[in-house]
């Protein structure tokens, strides 16, 4: 959900606390007393990240879930969230969805701000958690010889989006109400060499681990668990929003959660990412706006 | 900077962690290990909280400063901020202002999100700090017999706003680049019975301490340090954006920072706020949008 590369690159120069990993790594990790605090902030914009006219209850759910998913990838247990809410139509539905998602995860709303707005609405959410394992998992620890794993299935959010867009009546839950893999992240944190959530597409996110770790990730397309048929493979791997956990484990270590082995980490090669032995064609990530 | 009362009231029901004080109190306070963490999130919307066409460098400054001011009122030392930024024109100026304010306060940018947007832009900022004194100052501790104090002068931001609006060329710094009273807040935290920052007007914010504490605040208009002449008193007391600290001290306790005594806390009366012995006329807070 990061935008304009130049702006983000410039912002990174402002992250002048060398102990803090932010923007580059979705979450910030700061030490406080004997604890490590994990913080993340994501925004949603109407018409960009959610359909115009989407049920505000779904927007609230997604806003919370995508941030909790960032915590999950750090093995962090949520302490609470802060909400930035632009007032508008159907705020009762927003509240209903917020209630649902906070109750589902047992996460308190700690505070926030509400503002008047016009035109397209925007929401921001900050999630705060405490690390359950140190060092906190990051994208940068994958080593040659590790196995690559992913939880759940890839492509479910894409199908949900298409069901909404095309008004087919098919199930759109995976797109509207993604799940944050908090329990899985906590169970995996002591074992993984690298971990992140799949928010921008399996290929793009895999390439991010490769870049951060200085290795090549080699994926086997036939091993990747798809929520759709193989004819949709190209798009499913480039879509995002599934919020499954993508992680690397040392060879021989079995994950304590349901997950599928999808490839192997190699020494850094001419490209950071291989799919069935070749550099993937075209864009790695899919622009999945409306 | 809180909007629609009904929405906020409904949100408060979602704040189901009784240890967390949020929305009602601008900042959330959560315990983590041996530390107390203080969190706040404010949004700014173009045309609502900042002039259309305002220098984005000033927007960035204000966005950070108003959140740090919330930490100051808690005696908290900033650990960092997370930014939600809607990309748009003159982002280079935004970055310049962000650099200025973060350097000025020595506060790291920990992370955040950037999103594409259209129309009026919105920004969100979360500031995280650690409490330097426990219990963390709140609005609810003022007791009858306490003296009421305020740092700095009231009305400077109003004058700055008018200078910009009327293009008089007069100094608008106080409106564009408010200062967060972090050092003062930290020095005061061990002494105060209640504290908050003056963001929505001295009268309105005083009434909030009165309400939270179950007392009456009795202000002496002649004692209030004004940045303007006495003819502007009515508006100066109802304007906000000065981000001075308003606090109560037990009678006889001298503040360790430059501040002015402006009144006395009384047992709860028929009204929470008295100005020169009478209930103030009209609205307590000033709607200072453009």
UniProtKB/TrEMBL annotation, chains A, B:
Pfam families: AIRS (PF00586), AIRS_C (PF02769). InterPro entries: PurM-like_C_dom, PurM-like_C_sf, PurM-like_N, PurM-like_N_sf, ThiL-like. It catalyses: thiamine phosphate + ATP = thiamine diphosphate + ADP. Pathway: Cofactor biosynthesis; thiamine diphosphate biosynthesis; thiamine diphosphate from thiamine phosphate: step 1/1. GO terms for molecular function: ATP binding; magnesium ion binding; thiamine-phosphate kinase activity. CDD domains: ThiL. Mg(2+) 1 binds at residues 42, 113. Keywords: ATP-binding, Kinase, Magnesium, Metal-binding, Nucleotide-binding, Thiamine biosynthesis, Transferase. ATP binds at residues 112-113, 139, 199. Belongs to the thiamine-monophosphate kinase family. Catalyzes the ATP-dependent phosphorylation of thiamine-monophosphate (TMP) to form thiamine-pyrophosphate (TPP), the active form of vitamin B1. This is Thiamine-monophosphate kinase.
């Amino acid at each position: 959900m990061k935008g304009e590369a130049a702006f983000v690159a410039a912002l990174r120069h402002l992250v002048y606390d060398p102990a803090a990993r932010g923007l580059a790594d979705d979450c910030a990790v700061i030490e406080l007393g004997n604890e490590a605090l994990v913080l993340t902030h994501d925004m949603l914009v109407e018409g960009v990240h959610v359909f115009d006219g989407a049920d505000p209850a779904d927007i609230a759910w997604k806003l919370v879930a995508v941030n909790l998913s960032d915590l999950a990838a750090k093995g962090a247990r949520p302490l609470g969230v802060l909400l930035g809410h632009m007032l508008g139509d159907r705020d009762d539905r927003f509240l209903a969805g917020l209630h649902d998602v906070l109750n589902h995860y047992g996460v308190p709303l700690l505070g926030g701000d509400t503002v008047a707005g016009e035109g397209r609405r925007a929401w921001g959410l900050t999630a705060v958690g405490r690390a359950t394992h140190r060092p906190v998992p990051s994208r940068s620890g994958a080593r040659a010889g590790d196995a690559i794993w992913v939880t759940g299935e890839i492509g479910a959010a894409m199908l949900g989006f298409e069901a909404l867009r095309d008004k087919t009546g098919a199930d759109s839950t995976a797109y509207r109400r993604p799940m944050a893999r908090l329990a899985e992240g906590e169970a995996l944190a002591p074992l993984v060499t690298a971990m992140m959530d799949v928010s921008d597409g399996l290929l793009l996110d895999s390439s991010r681990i490769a870049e951060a770790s200085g290795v090549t990730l080699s994926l086997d397309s036939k091993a990747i668990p798809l929520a759709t048929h193989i004819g949709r493979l190209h798009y499913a791997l480039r879509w995002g929003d599934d919020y499954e956990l993508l992680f690397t484990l040392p060879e021989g270590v079995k994950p304590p959660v349901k997950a599928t082995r999808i490839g192997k980490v190699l020494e850094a090669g001419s490209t950071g990412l291989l799919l069935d032995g070749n550099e993937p064609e075209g864009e790695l990530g899919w622009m999945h706006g409306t």
